[in-house]
Amino acid sequence: MQTFGWPEILFILRSAGWTLALTVIAFFIGSIIGGAFALMRLSRIRWLRRFAGGYILVIQSIPVLMVLFMSYYGLSALGVELPPFLAASASLSIYVSAYLAEIWRGSIESVPRQQWEASMSLAHSPAQTYRHVILPQAVRISLPPTVGFLVQLVKNTSIVQVVGFVDLMRAGMLVNNATYQAFQIFTVVAAIYFAICFPLSRLSRHLEKVMNASRSH
Amino acid sequence: MPAVLIEDIHKRFGSLEVLKGVSLSVDTGQVVAIIGRSGSGKSTLLRCINGLETFHAGKIEVAGHVMTQDPTKLRELRKDVGIVFQSYNLFPHLTVGQNIMLSPRITKNVPQAQALALAKDVLAQVGLSEKFDSYPDNLSGGQQQRVAIARSLAMQPKVMLFDEVTSALDPELTGEVLIVMEKLAKGGMTMLLVTHEMNFARTVADTTVFMHQGLIWESGPSKELFANPQTPELANFVKAGAH
Ligand SMILES: Nc1ncnc2c1ncn2[C@@H]1O[C@H](COP(=O)(O)OP(=O)(O)OP(=O)(O)O)[C@@H](O)[C@H]1O
Ligand SMILES: [Mg+2]
User: From residue B93, how far is each of A10, A68, A121, A138, B21 by CA, in Å?
Assistant: First the structure.
């Protein structure tokens, strides 16, 4: 029987890299799509609003796991074979986009209506109003919940193991199957999750403080 | 041609008719105070003049622009028509200087150096030169309102609208804002101001307009209007003192 040593730890660390990579990709792509859907939700054009609302509602109402199954097994039934990493990135991005869209829509809406009026009264266009007045304030408001969601995302990426992708969690299980030193292994795995998520939580709090300080220095 | 021409404006919110045919003409350099009870339509009228509210019938011309819903034309109109609100509405994420320079920069492409000079100039006009780098949150209400006026002035408007700009202020802070407005009036700015400061209306405004139930009930030269109200409604309003 194998013991839990450096090769195993390296394997786990490499898999942690995949978890990170997946998180970054899903967050990046999800942000772009989510930002677009947030703006569509707030559009003056009714069908755009409805379309975005429908998308968000559907994605939020089904488990991410189903999105993952559908993009992996569903497409492969149609003859399209997605590699696990692609299927995982795609479905996590979709998941992220729906949640960020809602967080950001809420942040944009919580900027007081009077800010819109003041900006438009100064002859700004709607785009200029978004760019110079609304979004800078909305970003501040959205930062803590956005980073909070990112922490959830790091942990939620562990579902991608169901399509055969070896992430941090899956690596721990594989090593455990070979060495049966569950306590040590999962302590290491937990420590890595903690090492990723803890700084993020701190970052969120730090940003909040910096933002507040910049408003009253 | 008058600086502001309002012809038979009708405005409804749902089934509630808030303006029932309002006409008003303001000459260049004239100061007009609008007074009246809460709900009489004063703010709505003012907001129609810079297109923040649309209206159902009638016509408005201001600073040579015909009121329109066309976004590009409306922006041209708004470059010439400043508005100051009761709640200041400064941009909290920008410093005082940035608040003032933003609009000239992005709507008129005023070069940075020129925008800076302009900002310093209007800030001096409202007596707040030393606050250039402050954030709005660190200013008193009276100071914020003066910055809001300066921000409007930086657009070099032809007409200024004021909607109860001292109503949110503690009594001891209203004076500093009223002084700035009086200076503007003396300097020849065309002004329409909704106010509850009867003294200010009487002494600074050339004309006072009394609105009642969505109509201009009575109007005339300020001093005469306050001294000899022609309608019982205005007499009561004046007697009740402001509200
Ligand atoms: N956006 C709106 N939707 C519905 N009703 C409105 C809206 N804005 C104003 N009203 C109504 O229109 C009427 C006139 O409002 P307006 O704000 O013009 O009055 P005002 O004379 O400025 O009053 P105040 O002295 O309280 O500011 C009021 O009955 C008000 O409730
Ligand atoms: Mg009002």
Answer: 46, 40, 18, 10, 41
pTM comes to 0.87
pLDDT digits (tens, 9 = 90+) for B195-242: 999 999 999 999 999 999 999 999 999 999 999 999 999 999 998 874
Nearest ligand, CA B34 = 1
CA dihedral B200, B203, B204, B209 (to 10 degrees): 80
Q: Report yes or no: A194 and B116 within 8 Å, Cβ to Cβ.
A: no
Determine how β-strand B215-221 pairs with β-strand B65-66.
unpaired
Give how many domains chain B has, as a whole number.
1
**For residue B211, which amino acid is it?**
M
DSSP B190: E
Using one digit for the tens of pLDDT, what is the confidence trace for A131-151? 999 999 999 889 888 998 999
C-alpha dihedral, A73 to A77 to A81 to A84, nearest 10° = 10
B139, B147 contact by CB (below 8 A): yes
Find the B176 Cα to ligand 1 centroid distance in Å.
Answer: 27
Delimit the domains of chain A by residue range: 6-216
Q: What is the residue range of B149's domain?
A: 4-241
Residue with tokens 């066309």, as numbered in its chain: B70
Burial class from Cβ neighbours inside 10 Å (0-12, 13-18, 19+) for residue A124 reads buried
CB contacts of A132 in chain B (<8 Å) are 91, 102, 106
For residue B4, how many other CB atoms are within 10 A of its CB?
23
d(CA A141, CA A208): 9
Closest to B160 measured CA to CA, from B30, B41, B70 = B30
Is the Cβ pair A118, B89 closer than 8 Å? yes
CATH 1.10.3720.10 fits A6-216, yes or no: yes
Q: Using the beta-carbon criterion (under 8 Å), do A121 and B82 form an inter-chain contact?
A: yes
Q: Residue B62 maps to which CATH number? A: 3.40.50.300
Distance CA B133, CA B189 (A): 27
Residue-level length of chain B: 243
